[in-house]
Amino acid sequence: MSVADRCALFTGASGSRTKEFEESGVRSICMTDGPNGIRGDVADCGTGHTKSLCYPSACLLACSFDRDILNTVGYYLGLDARSRGVDLVLGPAINLKRYPLCGRNFEYYSEDPCLTGELAGAFVAGIQRTTGACVKHFAVNNRENKRMSLNCIVDRCTLQETYLSSFARIVKKYRPDAIMTSYNKINGEYAGENRYSLKKVLRRDWQYDGLVISDWGAVNNIVDSIRCGLDLEMPVNDSNTEILKKSVYSGEFPEEELNAHTADLLRRLDGICGRRKDVRFDQEEAYNKLADIVAECSVLLKNEGKILPLKGKKRIGVFGELAIKPRIQGGGCANVQAYGAEDVFTAVRLRFQHCECEFSLGFAEGKNGKQAEKLVSDALAVAQNSDVCIVAMGLPESLESEGYDRKSLKVPGRQIRFLKALYQVNKNIVVMLYNGGMVCLDFEKYAKAVVECYLGGSATGAAAAKILSGDVPPAGRLAETAVRKAEDFSCCPYVAENPDVEIYGEGLFVGYKFYNSRNMKVIYPFGYGLHYGEVKYSEVEITDKKIRIHLVNTSDYDVKETVQIYVNFLDCSYARPGAELKEFRKVLVPKGGERYVEIALNSDCFEVYDYNTDSMTDYSGKAEISVRKNAREIIASRLLTIPGEKRKHYDRNTLIGELLKTPEGIEIIENKLKQYLIKAILGNFNADYLSMKNGRAIGHERFNSMMENMPLRALVNLSSGAFSNEMLNEVLEHLRESDAHG
Ligand code: BGC
């Protein structure tokens, strides 16, 4: 291939294709959004399809806490894509829900990186049974306002532990075919040319050898991008091909470099083409399976007097515009032209044929004043005549989309006003909630039951009927905290409406980690969800290798219980947010039955960021491991010491406090350092001035505090030459030797 052709390879041929060079055997791959289904414009991939099954959004799927569910949905999506000639699905989108008002949160999984990484990883594995998956957006793309230019300032520990770690899990365990870089800057450099996240972490530390593509139109400097590890700019951009060519001709980007990158790119594209095979996709089978999955993922937040499932009811009133115009997906590139989705009311009427089902709007977008009042009074008349009132509430489509953030946590006021009016005439209220991002749930006091249904795609209506009837009981758990108000978010003080720079000042304290560390009131905690039945934890054994639990179901319903394991690292050298989710397991306990569950804790559960090596490392030291029902409700916990190979790192800046942690260190303090410490701290050499025990001065707390926080080097600097550099080196050698033998 000529230099010109090779340069041309680095940008796409269109919005969804890479370039083809037939004579050189370079095949074009076809890619399309995205995680919610196959986008309408894949005519480019040769099939001419415009409609697609709409798959449930990640905000709902994440509530499954179930890797098998994600794998199944990924499998159907991959099959659907492959059957249309798509080589690469542009999804999953796995950015963390740092900011609950981010317009694109419907596409994202959770506020927790372990849950996100594990579930999205299973989704990738499902897609990649037949088709390539592209995990996006790498990285720190946590809001939509100014997403194309925002400079996110994040310390490295937070970056690695919080924002990169879900990508790390997927890259290491599931080897996605592609990763898409995000639009924003991370610590001053665009994500697509970031020397830290892209070059060092993804390409070097994680050894990622898949295709790295830019988000659409995100490239700033093509040469810098390629040098950092980007393979492909999307969509087509001839001007960057020209720039690349000129850089090669001028020697700024030597031809050998171009050749090496071309070889990598072609190998990676070939790998994706290697998945091509003939498949058969059965849409009806997928739809039926999805309807069960959507019902199962939904979260039962409240169920007073066991009003759900609906039993023995004769007259069912259904209310709210969303019950007849279902909200099934979010806006932006993930939006698909969905095959006619059955609405909630139709599905309920079909399932409850033995009942009288009546619908009344109650409220609707754009209806105000007299019209709105009429809607309410008509609906109240229906409510007065109903045994139970099902109200479909949530966020209208216009309020949440890619490209902009939400302005408020609240659902529209007209919905709340209607709910309050309804409550006056009939207290048997069940709220079905349809929203992509978390909303303020303070209206729950007006309902006996609340089911958080999020955005369920084509099967939304069918799933509602399954939930209400109990055919498929909801078994989801919240993958994000339901907070009382936007001011409670830990990122709140650092978020401006239209910023150029955003400082991630809350660090590791994101979502429940923040609310727990402050013991803040929340409406429902992360991990929360009820069941129609009930499971009891009867025995729990905890070690650092595995957890063993006995679950007993005494109810009349099968229960899919979500066991959650949290770890609190107590011996870390920096402040941490307390308990962090590190493992979870969904377990079916049949009605009247019992199950023993064993959950292995692998090394992923005990990784923390290490400032000395600027990477994630195995933790050793004290840790509290707890089994919880949700982030707030502890079932059992145990304090353990996690063993580790970790060597201590001694140098001239090591604090005396560190020496106090080992017997050798204490001996050195007492026998070798005492007089110099007295000089450095008290200004005299009188070693008899104080006596020591266990490395500490007896009866001299001020001395002890000063000493603990003093680096070894200070003894050289403050002892008027009495403690020399040579003596310091001897001490260090001694410490290192005893550490190596100990
Ligand atoms: C979005 C990506 C998407 C791409 C292609 C971008 O605007 O951020 O998620 O895959 O467009 O449609």
Protein architecture, described:
The protein has 742 residues and is an alpha/beta fold. 31% of the residues lie in helices and 19% in strands. A hairpin with a 3-residue loop joins strand 18 (535-542) and strand 19. Helix 12 packs across helix 15 (460-469). The mean pLDDT is 95. Beta-D-glucopyranose (BGC) binds at residues 33-34, 90, 136, 215-216, 333.
- Across the major sheet, the strand order is 10-16-15-14-11-13
**Count the helices. How many?**
21
Q: Helicity, in percent? A: 25-40%
Low-pLDDT windows of residues: none
Which geometry do the CA atoms define?
A: globular
First-to-last CA distance: 60 Å
Q: Note the main sheet.
A: 6 strands, mixed
Class of secondary structure makeup? alpha/beta
Content of β-strand: 15-25%
| Structure summary, number of beta strands | 28
